């Protein structure tokens, strides 16, 4: 399959995020994107998943599958067909959103391979009494790994060794899986080339997310494979764009609050001009994630807990 270089926007240090939405991979097609790295796209497109969830096969002969995807029998069949004649020795899961982990049960039943992940789904912080359940979280609360993995653990197979890199923020239990020898990192939903990641409290945490970006930027891996969309070259440099984008979003929130007290829908209308209406709710939770951070740092104030229905003002107002 042809690589996606033709339509990439060049990276300039003073430019906006150089998103790449050129991803012609079709569902069910096995694409060997690099030696020892194959990918298969699930047919679950949406405003949140782009063209669908990408599952990865690492190695040859005795292989690992990363992120088996949503509860989708056709995608499980495509993955199993892709490794026909091979042995699946490991199943790795970056995080427990319903577009990444539920198909794990099918792949494990078919292969007997043990499942490696950070742990069951959990929120990034305790839920406030005033909060209602966040339907956008899409949590797979049934998932349990066979082997709990922590930051720095190395998972070894035939011809490959993947290091777990704790990257909480999108979810509390998010892991990236780095292949240092190949300077490759499977970054799940923490970094995506087609869009920014959703950080929606209490499922996600902006404080954790920004710290995890810094952790990835400091590493040597420079080719990222994401849970959605195309591969990301110059990964650490791309992470710097994401960091600056989040800092600019924070500045926009503060600019709006400098004009006076506001609720989150008012801030979304002021900041997200021309947003897809289907993403308005997610944008509100992203603003909330920034506000939680700003309240914790004493820059912004609110009455009571920082929640989606709250009203916010500058702390020195």
Automatic annotation (TrEMBL):
Pfam families: Lactamase_B, WHD_BLACT. Transmembrane segments: none annotated. SUPFAM superfamilies: Metallo-hydrolase/oxidoreductase. Residues 51-228 form the Metallo-beta-lactamase domain. Residues 1-20, 114-144 are annotated as: Disordered. Residues 1-12, 126-144 have a biased composition (Basic and acidic residues). PANTHER family: ENDORIBONUCLEASE LACTB2. This is Glyoxylase-like metal-dependent hydrolase (Beta-lactamase superfamily II). It comes from Bradyrhizobium algeriense.
């Amino acid at each position: 399959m042809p690589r996606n270089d033709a339509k990439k926007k060049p990276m300039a240090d003073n430019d906006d995020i150089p998103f790449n939405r050129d991803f012609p991979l079709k569902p069910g097609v096995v694409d060997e994107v690099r030696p020892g790295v194959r990918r298969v796209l699930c047919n679950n497109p949406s405003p949140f998943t782009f063209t669908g969830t990408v599952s990865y096969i690492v190695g040859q002969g005795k292989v690992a599958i990363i992120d088996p995807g949503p509860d989708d029998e056709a995608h499980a069949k495509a993955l199993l067909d892709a490794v026909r004649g091979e042995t699946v020795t490991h199943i790795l899961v970056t995080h427990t959103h319903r577009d990444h982990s539920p198909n794990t049960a099918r792949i494990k039943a078919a292969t007997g391979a043990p499942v490696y992940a950070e742990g069951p789904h959990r929120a990034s912080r305790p839920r406030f009494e005033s909060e209602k359940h966040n339907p956008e979280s899409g949590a797979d609360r049934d998932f349990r790994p066979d082997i709990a993995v922590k930051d720095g653990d190395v998972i070894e197979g035939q011809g490959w060794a993947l290091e777990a890199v704790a990257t909480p923020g999108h979810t509390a239990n998010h892991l990236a899986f780095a292949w240092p020898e190949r300077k490759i990192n499977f970054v799940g939903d923490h970094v995506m080339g087609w869009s920014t990641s959703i950080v929606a409290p209490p499922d996600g945490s902006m404080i954790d997310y920004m710290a995890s970006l810094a952790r990835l930027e400091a590493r040597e891996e420079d080719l990222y494979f994401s849970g959605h969309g195309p591969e990301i070259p110059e990964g650490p440099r791309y992470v710097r764009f994401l960091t600056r984008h989040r800092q600019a979003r924070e500045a926009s929130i503060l600019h709006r609050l400098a004009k006076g007290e506001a609720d989150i829908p008012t801030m979304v209308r002021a900041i997200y001009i021309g947003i897809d209406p289907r993403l308005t709710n997610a944008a509100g939770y992203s603003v909330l994630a920034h506000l939680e951070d700003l309240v914790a740092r004493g820059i912004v104030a609110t009455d009571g807990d920082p929640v989606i229905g709250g009203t916010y003002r500058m702390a020195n107002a």
